[in-house]
Design goal:
- This protein is of the alpha/beta class.
- The protein has helices at residues 12-29, 46-56, 71-81, 101-104, 126-142, 159-166, 175-181, 205-218, 222-252, 259-292, 319-325, and strands spanning 2-8, 33-39, 60-65, 86-89, 114-119, 151-158, 186-191, 297-302, 309-312, 335-337.
- Strands 7-5-6-4-1-2-3-8-9-10 form a ten-stranded mixed sheet, sandwiched between helices.
- Strand 1, helix 1 and strand 2 form a beta-alpha-beta unit.
- The chain is elongated.
Length: 338
C-alpha cells in the first residue's frame, strides 16, 4: 500500500488540479493507495475543498491542523497517520510531478529505503541559483550530514525509513537534514524543474534565509566552535597590533592613534559580539523549546473525526508496523478530546 502525504497551505486555487492529477496517476502506480492531505491552518477555502474531496473519494483523507504550524509539522502529521508500507511526500502546488512516482516506487523493490527526486534549476532566477549553490557548499562544510542541491522533500520512503523518522523526537525539525541523518540505502531520480502554474510561492527571501539558518544550526555545534576560533584570532591580531604600537612608540615617540581607526574598531567588534551572542541565543532558544515538550501540532479536525480536536506528538509510530519491524518502540496515537 502506498500513502501519499501532501501538506497544503492556502492551496485552494490549485487544489482540484492536484486531486485530479493524483486520481489519474496513482491507479497506474499501484491499485492500493491512500492520499493524506494536511491543511496547515490555511486562511482560504482549502479546508472546505478538502472536506468535499474526502466525501467524493474515500481514498483521499484530510487532516486539518488547528493553526499554521509550518510545513515540517504538516509533513510529520501526515507521516504519523500514514498506513502504507511506502510513503510518498509531495508538494500540493504540482511542482512535484505525480507521474514521477511511476519511476520512483519500483525502486523500493530493489532494496532502497529512500527514493529521492532531484530537480534541475531550469527556470529559476540566476541570482537564486547562485545563492543556492553557495549555500549548499557552505552547509556541507558545517553540517554533520550532507545535503544535495536540488533535492527537497519529494521522495518515497519505505516503512522502515518512515518509522525511523517518527522516532526522532526533536521539536526543531529540519527535514532535509533528517532525511539524510537516518541514512539507509537511497536512490535518486532526476526530473526537469516544473514552474508553479497556480498561486504564489510561500517561500520568500526572508523565509528561505531563516530556513537556511535552521539547517546550519540544527545538525551541529560548529558555529559555536567557530565563534571560539574567531575570538582567538581577533585576540591574536589585537595582541600583534598592540605590540606594533608599543614598538612604534619606542622608535618614533608616543603618538595618538587615529580617531577613525578607533571608531571602526569599536563598531566592528561590537557587531561581531552581537553576532556571537545571536548564535549562542539560537542554541539556547532551541534548548528552551525542546524542554517544554509541547506537541508538534494539534488537529482541529480530520476526515475520520470531523470537528474533533486531537492532540498529537512527535514519536508517533503505528503500532502494527513497529511491532512487525521490532527495531523501534511503539508509541500510542494521539487521544481524542471532545
Amino acid at each position: 500500500m502506498l500513502s501519499v502525504v501532501s501538506p497544503c497551505y492556502n492551496e485552494g486555487p490549485g487544489l482540484r488540479q492536484l486531486v485530479q492529477a493524483l486520481q489519474e496517476t496513482l491507479p497506474e502506480v499501484t491499485p492500493d493507495f491512500e492520499v493524506i492531505l494536511v491543511d496547515d491552518g490555511s486562511s482560504d477555502d482549502t479546508l472546505a475543498q478538502l472536506r468535499a474531496v474526502a466525501r467524493e473519494d474515500p481514498r483521499f483523507r484530510y487532516l486539518a491542523l488547528s493553526r499554521n504550524f509550518g510545513k515540517e509539522a504538516a509533513m510529520l502529521a501526515g507521516m504519523s497517520e500514514a498506513a502504507g508500507d511506502a510513503v510518498a511526500i509531495i508538494d500540493a502546488d504540482l511542482q512535484h510531478p505525480p507521474e514521477l512516482l511511476k519511476r520512483m516506487l519500483p525502486l523500493l523493490d530493489h532494496g532502497f529505503d529512500q527514493v529521492v527526486a532531484k530537480r534541475t534549476r531550469a527556470g529559476d532566477a540566476a541570482a537564486r541559483t547562485f545563492a543556492s549553490r553557495i549555500y549548499y557548499r557552505l552547509v556541507n562544510h558545517l553540517m554533520d550530514v550532507r545535503l544535495q542541491d536540488g533535492v527537497g522533500d519529494f521522495r518515497v520512503l519505505s516503512r522502515k525509513a518512515v518509522d525511523a523518522l517518527l522516532s526522532l523526537r526533536e521539536y526543531n525539525r529540519f527535514s532535509k537534514g533528517l532525511f539524510s541523518w537516518i541514512g539507509f540505502d537511497s536512490a535518486t531520480v532526476n526530473y526537469e524543474n516544473v514552474l508553479r502554474e497556480v498561486g504564489e510561492s510561500k517561500w520568500g527571501l526572508r523565509r528561505l534565509l531563516n530556513y537556511g539558518i535552521d539547517g546550519v544550526i540544527s545538525f551541529n555545534s560548529k558555529p559555536l566552535r567557530s565563534a571560539i576560533h574567531f575570538g582567538l584570532l581577533m585576540s591574536a591580531l589585537a595582541f600583534i597590533y598592540a605590540a606594533w604600537i608599543v614598538a612604534r612608540a619606542l622608535v618614533t615617540g608616543v603618538s595618538s592613534p587615529g580617531y577613525v581607526t578607533i571608531i571602526c574598531a569599536i563598531v566592528g567588534f561590537g557587531g561581531l559580539q552581537m553576532i556571537m551572542l545571536g548564535i549562542v541565543g539560537e542554541y539556547l532558544g532551541r534548548i528552551y523549546l525542546e524542554t517544554k515538550g509541547r506537541p508538534h501540532y494539534l488537529f482541529k479536525e480530520t476526515s475520520e473525526s470531523p470537528r474533533a480536536a486531537i492532540v498529537s506528538s512527535a514519536p508517533v509510530i503505528p503500532e502494527a508496523h513497529a511491532a512487525r519491524d521490532g527495531s523501534l518502540g511503539a508509541s500510542p496515537r494521539g487521544s481524542g478530546i471532545e
